[in-house]
TrEMBL record:
Residue span, Acyl-CoA dehydrogenase/oxidase C-terminal domain: 236-378
Catalytic activities: glutaryl-CoA + oxidized [electron-transfer flavoprotein] + 2 H(+) = (2E)-butenoyl-CoA + reduced [electron-transfer flavoprotein] + CO2
A Pfam family hit: Acyl-CoA_dh_N
Limits of the Acyl-CoA dehydrogenase/oxidase N-terminal domain: 17-129
E.C. code: 1.3.8.6
PROSITE patterns the record matches: ACYL_COA_DH_2
GO molecular function, one term: fatty-acyl-CoA binding
Functional pathway: Amino-acid metabolism; lysine degradation; Amino-acid metabolism; tryptophan metabolism
Acyl-CoA oxidase/dehydrogenase middle domain segment(s): 133-224
Lineage of the species this protein comes from: Bacteria, Pseudomonadati, Bacteroidota, Flavobacteriia, Flavobacteriales
Alphabetical keyword list: FAD, Flavoprotein, Oxidoreductase, Transit peptide
Protein name: glutaryl-CoA dehydrogenase (ETF)
Cofactor(s) named in the record: FAD
Amino acid sequence: PDLFEAPDYYNLDDLLTEEHKLIRDAARAWVKRDVSPIIEQAAQDAKFPKSIIPGLAEIGAFGPYIPEEYGGAGLDQISYGLIMQEIERGDSGVRSTASVQSSLVMYPIWKYGSEEQRNKFLPKLASGEFMGSFGLTEPDHGSNPSGMVTNFKDMGDHYLLNGAKLWISNSPFCDVAVVWAKNEEGRIHGLIVERGMEGFSTPETHNKWSLRASATGELIFQDVKVPKENLLPNKSGLGAPLGCLDSARFGIAWGAIGAAMDCYDTALRYAKERIQFGKPIAAFQLQQKKLAEMITEITKAQLLAFRLGQLKNEDRATSAQISMAKRNNVEMAIKIAREARQMLGGMGITGEYSIMRHMMNLESVITYEGTHDIHLLITGLDITGENAFK
Ligand code: TGC
Ligand code: FAD
């Protein structure tokens, strides 16, 4: 009864299994108990709250769909989505940490790594003993990662890595980084770089107005000697990192719903209690329009995510379908956050309520993992066959 009541206007719970609901409710209870009470202060202080790492591991947020033999939770894609939704109801920055760890670090090691790499890294990443980061974006290559200049040379018994990555979630405290770099032929490969390797540094990026509870930084490589056994052997080319992004973008499509639900729930409660002109503001048509549109958009986003989850479970979700859901659901959430903030009047700008934090967080979410524009162009390419990127 103490649990947050998520909007479920179309009885989507009827489509979930008992296991889905148990997993969701466990994540929901954990967010309420361990994240909600501390997250506002963490965001104000611009500090990632490391104390929540064991809890994230416990609810299965590190590698929800990674097989249990490697320490993962061995769950389906809808469970993964539901966990991301609940975490992002708390904060997009916390969900970022889970997304990066699961889909951008564990996924490539699982899918493209050797058996030795899987056994060495996955159980520790699943338990949170190791934290990971993912280096694709560079200062001069964001939306267009194929132009990356970070590179490695074959030195016989090791590789020599040089270059720099920017805007990397978890970088300041990561133990391992999955880094995308070009070999001497210009082919993109993934390398596992470990903290402590000489020439590897991870300076933090300060003064963000968004995702303040998530640590963001650089990955800098100056003649880093990377052992040959740290190259991911089973896939190369841009399709390798883009495959990881498919999984992370799927999680974000669900996560954004969580942020939107929290904004809607907060605005609805506030509107019923706040009296102006002798009535609750919920009685004014203008406020009802905002709330009615919010629940409509949340419901549409839930349907999109649920169906995408089914397709993903069957391994049938296309990258373009994932792009559509990421783009739609994040825009839905950011619009709801902006409307909900206004509904709280002056109170909406304070940290007493979560809305402004969500709103500012979502400015990153609409930019990372492919910007809003990039995802539109992916849909455009898919439906017309005309490539606007080339
Ligand atoms: P293009 O020529 O289209 O493709 C190159 C190769 O990749 C294949 N491919 C995919 N494979 C798997 N999944 C996908 N989604 C794929 N999309 C394309 C493609 O078939 C091709 O394979 P092959 O074998 O023919 O070589 O590549 P392009 O250079 O034209 O770029 C396409 C574009 C613009 C869509 C892509 O570069 C893109 O998505 N750009 C956005 C970059 C991005 O999303 N960066 C995210 C960085 S990570 C991050 O933000 C983490 S935030 C984490 C958090 O805190 O939650
Ligand atoms: P640019 O690519 O320079 O884009 C600038 C503008 O131009 C955008 O509006 C874009 O939509 C538009 N644009 C670009 N190309 C086109 C085009 N062809 N047509 C039309 N418009 C276009 N990256 C990682 O690798 N790992 C991480 O962990 C990670 N975490 C992040 C955390 C945060 C908080 C942030 C903000 C970013 C993170 N990123 C990460 C980077 C993120 O993926 C990039 O910021 C994003 O891909 C956009 O790249 P850019 O910032 O260089 O913008």
